[in-house]
What we know:
single chain; mainly alpha; two-stranded antiparallel ribbon; 15 helices
Amino acid sequence: MSRKAAVVALTALAPISWGSTYFVTTEFLPPDRPLFTGLMRALPAGLLLLALTRKLPQGAWWWKLAVLGALNIGAFFPLLFLAAYRLPGGVAAVVGSVGPLFVVGLAALFLGDKPTVKSLLTAVAAAFGVSLVVLKAGAALDLVGVIAGLLSALSMSAGVVFTKRWGRPEGVGALALTGWQLTAGGLVILPVAFLIEGAPPALTGTHLAGYAYLAFGNTAISYFLWFRGIERLSASSATLLGPLSPITAAIIGWAALGQALGPVQLLGMVIAFGATLVGQLGPRTPKEAAPQAETFSSAEGSGQEVSMDLESSAVRR
């Protein structure tokens, strides 16, 4: 396996993991607490990584991590959850799937990456494939929900581009950078969650197990792999791994929740997966050829994690 293929495979584990979020949220967590769930995913994971790495930002990285934490976590989570609660799951997933198109435009603006026909076509094909997987006839639209979904996709796309633009400080591993962003994002969500949802709910052992999975496997490890992959792949290639999340969610819904997968959904999976594969074809990048040393190596539409229920109207990230 080539170095790039290995990087792609490891990075792909992040959106695949995020595809399990809906199942865990509905089956293991208290209902109607999306912001508290976002807080429990981000802040404990970030604090754990800070404790493990024992590194703090220096100089300009204080404001950079504030921006990255807000874009990738702090603003993204609330906007995505707002879209999830105001739109049917399929509509929210399709709105979120425009992330690769946002990345193409932002990468041209901030990274100097000239858009290509391939990048545009693969982004459109990925969004079309996701729509076939999750969109149902007669799905209702809500203006606030659509705007929130578009802003969530834009927020995560901007996070991908600026993560690529700024890289990380010399001598700081991807694990520390992940901890910084998760902590910053969690601190953004903290006051919003308590202001809107009030005090935390009473938690059972099942709830705690679900939150532990989301915080550590689904967030700490997955975001480490995601940010590590962004360094080594082009912004568009990384974002085009996003469709693996709704594909995974659909497979889990079929296998664990008895949700139907018809010919149209299967065709959509093939199109979205094909666009993901085509998006990874291209020359090696400088980062890939000479990656920075890591402090930890181990296994987030688009830079988008969109987990959806094919039978109901909820979506989670």
